[in-house]
């Protein structure tokens, strides 16, 4: 079954917060969205802009998203709720210009038990990076630049 088909099976109340944003955010927002008295575990991954890549010093980067990226992010979040026994998932990804140390992506899952929350969170970030059309344009201190994740 394709991700799009699975997306329609997800219970809307389990998709707590799924957005692309062009402004700063932090993990607290995702953590708050996943608050649930039934949850015994909440797992959150925070991806930040690092100062290096493949041995080169990064100055800054820009994330660009294809027009279908919002739907893709939703589909991946929905697929996570189908694949794992979770109470809720959340995913925020930044687009636009970011500096070193900025938060680029936050994903999370809450579940009755920690193992399921961890597994869902890991799968969600891995699938997001593999299938959602968001591209990174890195600029390096030596004046070179590189696009990452482009087709």
Summary of the model, kept short:
The protein has 151 residues and is of the alpha+beta class. Helix content is 30%, strand content 38%.
Topology:
Layout: H1 3-7, E1 15-21, H2 27-33, E2 41-48, E3 52-53, E4 56-65, H3 69-83, E5 88-94, E6 96-99, E7 103-111, H4 114-131, E8 134-140, E9 145-148
Parallel strand pairs: 1-5
Antiparallel strand pairs: 2-7, 3-4, 4-6, 4-8, 5-7, 8-9
Give a description of the structure:
The protein has 151 residues and is α+β, with helices and mostly antiparallel strands. Strands 3, 4, 6, 8 and 9 form a five-stranded antiparallel β-sheet that branches. The protein starts with a helix and ends with a strand. It contains four helices and nine strands; from the N terminus they run H-E-H-E-E-E-H-E-E-E-H-E-E. The chain has one domain (3-140): Alpha-Beta Complex (Aldehyde Oxidoreductase, domain 3), CATH 3.90.1170. A hairpin with a 4-residue loop joins strand 8 and strand 9 (145-148). The longest helix has 18 residues, at 114-131.
Structural class: alpha+beta
Q: Tell me, what's the shape? A: elongated
Please bin the fraction of helical residues: 25-40%
Q: In this structure, how is the largest beta sheet organized?
A: 5 strands, antiparallel
| Ends apart, CA distance between termini | 23 Å
The tally of helices reads 4
Q: What share of the residues does DSSP label as strand, in percent?
A: 35-45%
The CATH class is Alpha Beta
The CATH H-level homologous superfamily: Molybdopterin biosynthesis MoaE subunit
Q: Mean of residue pLDDT? A: 93
Number of strands: 9
Rg, Cα atoms, Å: 16 Å
| Low-pLDDT sequence parts | 1-8
- What's the CATH architecture name? Alpha-Beta Complex
Task: Briefly note the CATH topology name.
Answer: Aldehyde Oxidoreductase, domain 3
Give the count of structural domains. Answer: 1
Following the backbone from N to C, one meets helices and strands in this order, namely HEHEEEHEEEHEE
């Amino acid at each position: 079954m394709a991700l799009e088909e699975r997306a329609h099976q997800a219970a809307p109340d389990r998709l707590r917060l799924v957005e692309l944003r062009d402004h700063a955010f932090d993990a607290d927002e995702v953590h708050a969205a996943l608050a649930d008295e039934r949850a015994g575990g909440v797992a959150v991954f925070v991806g930040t802009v690092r100062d290096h890549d493949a041995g080169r010093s990064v100055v800054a980067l820009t994330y660009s998203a294809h027009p279908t990226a919002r739907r893709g992010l939703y589909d991946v979040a929905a697929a996570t709720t189908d694949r794992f026994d979770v109470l809720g998932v959340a995913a925020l990804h930044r687009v636009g210009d970011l500096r070193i140390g900025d938060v680029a992506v936050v994903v999370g899952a809450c579940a009755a038990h920690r193992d399921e929350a961890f597994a869902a969170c890991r799968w969600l970030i891995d699938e997001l990076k593999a299938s959602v059309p968001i591209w990174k344009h890195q600029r390096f201190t030596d004046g070179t630049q590189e696009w990452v994740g482009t087709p």
